[in-house]
Write a structure and sequence with these properties.
Elements lengths: L5 H6 L2 H4 L13 H13 L3 E4 L6 H8 L5 E6 L7 E3 L12 E4 L6 H6 L12 H12 L2 E7 L12 E7 L11 E6 L8 E4 L2 E5 H11 L9 E3 L6 E4 L10 E4 L15 E6 L5 H14 L6 E6 L5 E4 L2 H11 L1
Parallel strand pairs: 1-2, 2-3, 4-5, 6-8
Antiparallel strand pairs: 5-7, 6-7, 8-9, 10-13, 11-12, 11-13, 14-15
Helix pairs in contact: 7-8
């Protein structure tokens, strides 16, 4: 099995890292980014580190916004003369306070499929290891990473804001991404944005979710991916409308149910529960949280919003709250 060589590391997110992701709209024009970045520049002596630079497009985008700063850029396989060759995962540069970057993404399960040795790490995706390394070494970190990061419950004590970036802004990617801004101070607030629109505060949304899902603890037997289940679940939006729903189990063919099913499945619930009540609770959650606590999924719906996925953990909580 091949190891994670320099060339393979470049190919992990080649289109994004080598410039094909270049945005139609400059994400660094958003007021909430500018406020964070101006403060970070003051405390970093006007010096920016780009440790996974590729073609150095993020630095160019900052310069296009009129920022005046010095920078040092590295990449395991530089794609322009301004970028120095360095494997920053193995040999991270010291002495910097501010990072702007798009680290490589590689999920552990994808590495197995592609027969690439995954680096020894507790994380299930390479970008999470990169985040850990950067946060250990720098006070301010701005990173374009998978949008599912908000559901990972990692590094939230340093997270200042999370901006979901509409894929309409990108030339060639269906995978949802976000701009995560980290600060040195531990914070009890994480501000949520969709592009430049303020959506809410993370912990406030989580409190509202907990209130909606209040239930009396009982020893309920709930089994997912059960071919004989009495409740059906369509767990991913279609490309037209928000379509996640609890449905009649008969609409889900038994032969389609597998242990790995995550899109369309059956759930076995011994207690009686109303589909109308389940879907009403789901709709309430989606409205109050602006969908931010459901995982973004590949591609946009026709209404311009990201498709969403309902994970089994949240689906279970909805069922428990309705019994």
């Amino acid at each position: 099995m091949p190891t994670l060589s320099e060339n393979q590391l470049v190919n992990i997110s080649e289109k994004i890292r080598l410039g094909c992701f270049y945005t139609i709209q400059n994400i660094f024009s958003y007021p909430h980014f500018q406020e964070w970045f101006n403060q970070a520049l003051k405390e970093s002596n006007n010096l920016v580190l780009e440790p996974f630079a590729g073609s150095n497009n993020l630095i160019k985008m900052l310069q296009d916004e009129g920022y005046n700063f010095d920078f040092v850029a590295y990449d395991v396989n530089p794609a322009c003369f301004e970028v120095k060759k360095r494997d920053t995962i193995k040999d991270f540069p010291r002495g910097y306070k501010l990072i702007i970057t798009n680290p490589p993404y590689l999920a552990k399960n994808s590495a197995c499929r592609k027969k690439i040795d995954f680096l020894a790490t507790k994380y299930d995706d390479l970008y999470k290891l990169c985040l850990e390394i950067m946060l250990k070494n720098c006070a301010y970190v701005g990173a374009i990473i998978p949008a599912s990061f908000i559901n990972a419950d990692l590094f939230l004590d340093r997270l200042h804001s999370y901006t979901l970036l509409s894929s309409q802004m990108f030339n060639d990617t269906e995978n949802p991404v976000c701009l995560a801004l980290f600060s040195p101070q531990k914070s009890s607030s994480v501000y949520l944005y969709e592009n430049d629109k303020y959506v809410g505060e993370l912990y406030s949304l989580k409190k509202q979710l907990a209130k909606i899902l209040t239930f009396t603890p009982r020893n309920l037997e709930i089994k997912f991916n059960d071919q004989n289940g009495n409740i059906g679940l369509c767990a991913i939006d279609n490309t037209r409308v928000p379509s996640i729903a609890f449905i009649d189990a008969q609409l889900v063919p038994k032969k389609k149910i597998k242990v790995s099913s995550r899109h369309l499945t059956r759930i076995s619930v011994k207690e009686k529960v109303s589909l109308d009540l389940l879907n009403s609770k789901l709709a309430q959650i989606r409205k109050i949280t602006n969908d931010f606590l459901l995982t973004p999924f590949r591609g946009l719906r026709k209404d311009g919003k990201f498709r969403r996925r309902l994970d089994f953990q949240l689906a279970r909580k909805i069922i428990e709250a309705c019994i």
